[in-house]
Request: fold
Amino acid sequence: MPQPRICVIGSLNMDLVVQAPTLPAPGQTVLGGPFATFPGGKGANQAVAAARAGADVHMVGAVGDDGYGEALRAGLARERIEHAKVLRRDGVSSGVALIAVAPDGQNTIIVAPGANASLMVEEIDRASGIIAEADALLLQLEVPLPVIARAANHARQASTLVILNPAPAQPLPREMLAAADFVVPNETEVAALTGVLPVDWSSAEVAVQRLVEAGARSVLVTLGSRGALLWHNGQAHQQPAFNVRALDATAAGDAFLGAFAVALAEGQPAAEAARWGAAAGALAATVTGAQPSLPSREKILSLLASPPG
Reply:
């Protein structure tokens, strides 16, 4: 089977991670534990996830002229991700994410976009050939919305599969939802987009239906420890979670997206691709840090061979 080709257009951040006994409430100061820095950003995380899951990946984005930017580009190079279109902005800081992680693996994240906010539509036009040659295009919302819209348009013209991760959640026009083959939010993002918080399978299906009514064609909602709900070709499919001991949920969703995209690009049915995503997301939650947690293809296949919890 030829290696699937994935193009990722999105953010690159340096994650500043603090382990904390509890996530702070508004106005509360919490004395944290160990601190570490990890390469991150939803775009870069999904690029690394797809590469480790077996894809040939091209990344398009922007970093600053600081040490973080150099480290982020070097991280892509180590993963053999083509990054000629990851542009260096003079006089601009790289994106940074401030992350607190609780003992149960849940987290809070604040992102300072930095150079990510500078990505321009014209630069996407210059990457249109890469989009056209890809089997799938992965998009998120940590770069300007016009950039995402233009990239999706190039992909539609080239019949490249479009997977949109609407994170962080914001109002989206119907045409943008309709431009994606799959819209993949998590539970808080789908709640922000539809007004329905998926607390169980029934409410998750209501949320999915509202997103379809808003323009989405196929929807895959990731539900953390409960698994995921796929709506595709007019049918709902429940994907249970794999039973693992979660340490850090950071980038679990990105692991899910990367593996899901690779499985789809390889021609696997959407329900099986969702199972790949669930396995990758579960594995990522067992390791601290964003990109360090993203699993290899071998580990994904090993977990796929075991029954879900």
The first strand starts at residue 5 and ends at 9. The first helix runs from residue 42 to 52. The radius of gyration is 18 Å. The mean pLDDT is 94.
